[in-house]
């Protein structure tokens, strides 16, 4: 059973720039979003079409040394294809990023995992493969960051296999070690493994549980860009909740993001914060999107949105909510919606009389 992909099989349109950067037979495209950040899209066998964001950050350290890090937000589905033009002879997310953004192959990777679902972590396997071939569990030049909010959701490995959906889909779950358990609403600092010096990144991590307990968003202070993983995204892909989802947590996370964006939008003489997601949504106005998605879920809770019963998923009754021509749609276990309706304060979503 393909878990979510039936909702996502309509391929996303590519810009002309993406088309030009597509190599024959290569399953990835790339385009530049802003001064430091690139969007990679993957044409995977599941039809997920995940977004992988890569920011190249360089800073001058004490003593005048320059250090760079590739901040990679999620790794996709682990797609590979033959490549007859390079020494590796294979396109995968690791060789593709190196080809475009890491020609020397020696830039540090910091991978920020928005959450543990398979379409965000399967690409870890090719990234970690060189170290494993040498008998090492993980290269010191690959740092992996996960949310510290719900470590038990990810550990031990049996939990990761189940919650990543690898078990239900019969997939091999990557073996990896989280290097950084990120706090909520704090700037991210890392230790450069080769230089032994601290790098103070322009990145603030935000715990955003809801879609999953380990949901992690992050804010790029340089580019004024917010990345929300699978917390929500626009049609044609529906916002999706697995059995482990929690709508009350999601509601609180959206409110947290609204407050965060509102504070940052108060800054004078700079652009408004943009928002990008793990599927479909790229570079939209963050506040507009957050307010719209919250209003949509209010209408769902008030039974004002068309409901369609879906086949059960992982043993749970499942439903789909959509509006004709609407910006958002939603797929979730009925249990998740019932618990959310009971757990979210009624005055926050019911119409006032």
TL;DR?
This protein is an alpha/beta fold.
Give a quick set of tags describing it.
single chain; 353 residues; alpha/beta; Metallo-beta-lactamase, Chain A; 7-stranded mixed sheet; 6-stranded mixed sheet; 10 helices; 19 strands
In the CATH hierarchy, what is the class?
Alpha Beta
What fraction of residues sit in β-strands? 25-35%
Low-pLDDT runs of 5+ residues are: 5-16
The mean pLDDT is 91
CATH superfamily: Ribonuclease Z/Hydroxyacylglutathione hydrolase-like
Distance between the termini: 45 Å
Structural class: alpha/beta
Instruction: Order the strands across the largest sheet as they lie in space.
Output: 1-2-3-4-7-8-9
Q: Please estimate the helix content.
A: 25-40%
Would you identify the CATH architecture? Answer: 4-Layer Sandwich
Radius of gyration: 20 Å
CATH topology: Metallo-beta-lactamase, Chain A
The geometry reads as: globular
């Amino acid at each position: 059973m393909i878990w979510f992909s039936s909702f996502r099989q309509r391929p996303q349109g590519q810009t002309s720039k993406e088309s030009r950067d597509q190599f024959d037979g290569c399953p990835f495209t790339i385009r530049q979003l802003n001064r430091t950040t690139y969007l990679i899209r993957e044409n995977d066998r599941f039809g997920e079409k995940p977004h992988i964001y890569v920011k190249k950050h360089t800073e001058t350290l004490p003593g005048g040394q320059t250090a760079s890090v590739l901040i990679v937000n999620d790794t996709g589905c682990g797609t590979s294809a033959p490549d007859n033009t390079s020494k590796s002879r294979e396109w995968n997310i690791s060789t593709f990023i190196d080809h475009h953004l890491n020609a020397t192959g020696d830039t540090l990777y910091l991978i920020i995992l928005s959450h543990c679902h398979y379409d965000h972590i399967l690409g870890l396997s090719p990234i970690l493969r060189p170290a494993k071939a040498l008998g090492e569990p993980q290269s010191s030049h690959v740092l992996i960051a996960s949310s510290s909010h719900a470590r038990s959701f990810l550990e031990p490995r049996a939990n990761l296999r189940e919650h990543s959906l690898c078990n239900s889909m019969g997939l091999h779950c990557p073996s990896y070690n989280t290097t950084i358990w990120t706090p909520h609403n704090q700037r991210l600092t890392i230790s450069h493994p080769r230089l032994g010096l601290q790098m103070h990144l322009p990145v603030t991590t935000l715990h955003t549980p809801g879609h999953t307990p380990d949901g992690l968003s992050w804010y790029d202070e340089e580019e004024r860009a917010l990345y929300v993983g699978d917390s929500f995204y626009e049609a044609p892909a529906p916002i999706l909740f697995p059995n482990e989802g929690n709508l009350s947590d999601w509601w609180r996370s959206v409110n947290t993001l609204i407050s965060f964006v509102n504070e940052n939008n108060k800054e004078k003489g700079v652009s408004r914060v943009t928002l990008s997601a793990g599927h479909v949504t790229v570079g939209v106005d963050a506040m507009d999107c957050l307010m719209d998605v919250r209003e949509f879920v209010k209408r769902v809770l008030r039974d004002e949105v068309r409901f369609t019963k879906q086949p059960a998923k992982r043993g749970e009754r499942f439903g789909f909510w959509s509006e004709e021509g609407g910006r958002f749609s939603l797929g979730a276990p009925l249990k998740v919606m019932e618990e959310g309706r009971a757990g979210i304060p009624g005055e926050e979503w019911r119409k006032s009389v």
